[in-house]
Design a protein that fits this description.
single chain; 501 residues; TIM Barrel; Immunoglobulin-like; 2 domains; eight-stranded antiparallel β-sheet; 22 strands; binds calcium ion
Amino acid sequence: MALLMACAMLVAAADDAHAQGAPAPRSWADEVLYFVLIDRFADGDPGNNAGVDRGNPGGWHGGDLKGLTQQLDELRDLGVTALWINPVQMQQKRGMPAQAPGVPSFRHEGFHGYWVHDFEAMEPRFGTEADLKELVEQAHRRGIRVLLDVVVNHTGYTSIYADRKTAADEGWVRVGEGNCEVEPVTCAVGGLPDLKTEIAEVRDHVIGANIALARRAGVDGFRIDTYKHVPGNVWAEHRRRTRAELGPGFFLLAEYWGGTAQSLDGFFERDEVDAGFDFSFKGSCEAWVQGRGRSVAYGAYLRGRHRVRPGYVLAHYLSSHDEPMALATLGGDKDRFRLCVALQMTSLGLPVIYYGEEVARGGHEWPFNRNDMPWGARDILPGKGVARDEAMRDFYQRLIRIRAEHPALRRGDYTLLTQPQDATLAFARHDAASGDRVLVLANRDERAASVDLALPEGWPNGALTDRIGGAAIEVVQGRIQARIGAKSALVLAATPPKAAR
Ligand SMILES: [Ca+2]
């Protein structure tokens, strides 16, 4: 009965949170973020599939907000607590000629959402504003927050803004000007028309449209595209406006290309955003698991990520729509890939899963890093019949659960443990507030490795359990002896685990 009452109270609390339009406040450092390209995920409405050509790697494939909403239980079951969706505004009417190595020339459409035609209209292939609102409501019911991707820097190659003039008869966009290495703020990124955000009328339109849509839909934050290509004073104003119009907790995650703990710090110091992408995690992990570089150097890199300014967040990922898929970069070696997943989920920051990675989605370089979500035998287009690896998904689910159960992995400090074998990496995470401690041992070698380690000062003696494989290991007089399988990791914690958050 007590359990039933507790459940009823939880349900009531969840309903209250939903009634207020958002899940209960949580730190974004505690979330696991899942990035979806809507067009490539799930088609829930064949009625909006105008121009869909699933045979074209750069074409529209029919996925939409309704389809994504229908799969939210799949994401909740995986353990995802936040969802990032691509921009949803109306896209340019016709694609661009494109070529990629080994592929016949094709037409590249705005299926990714970054080629906005009209900031005040929805892209009908993604769905309606009501569909967006429903997605957000259904996500919130499941305790999942929603980040909407927004563009402030540029329009599509064609748009309603191409010929628009200000009251002072100045054009809204710069076309084909500037070198992005030298003039990042005024250049044409990817040749796209650059919005003259230095003009109040222009930035008010774009930022105002993004904020108005966010307010109507009830989203919890923005992922901000092409951050470095917009003047800093615009971002300061953007922060003031989002806080005033969308609430003080409205989350901002900046895509500052090449961002690291160091290079993002100025934005955090000025409090322009709450978080930025750590572009270095992916390559560092891929290199380490492939035997490049010394383990102590990689371990020091992971320690360096803890220099992030308190209260701000580094988002770290293994693959993205702008970079190659990690599994393919690793030559399809799933053991090495799992090792990176384990390190991602045991490291500080906001882990980002790029849709389908959790089922070993294929594809490598653009445009195939944006291919369809694999659904196997399930009757879901466009990825119906595309093979998926359920064992990989189980691994993700387990690692996400371990992260949820251990505040040390989300917020704890980091101690790199010294040991003689270069193929192995050992670090301890400790959260002083909860007392939670986790020991991570990783082995990149093709053979199993044995380690004999001194644990950090204050580590209690007693039994530890590998939260991945279940093996029990004893800490004796502050030391541990463990065997780590080939290309795998142990995540060791005292049993029983701390209660889930
Ligand atoms: Ca559709």
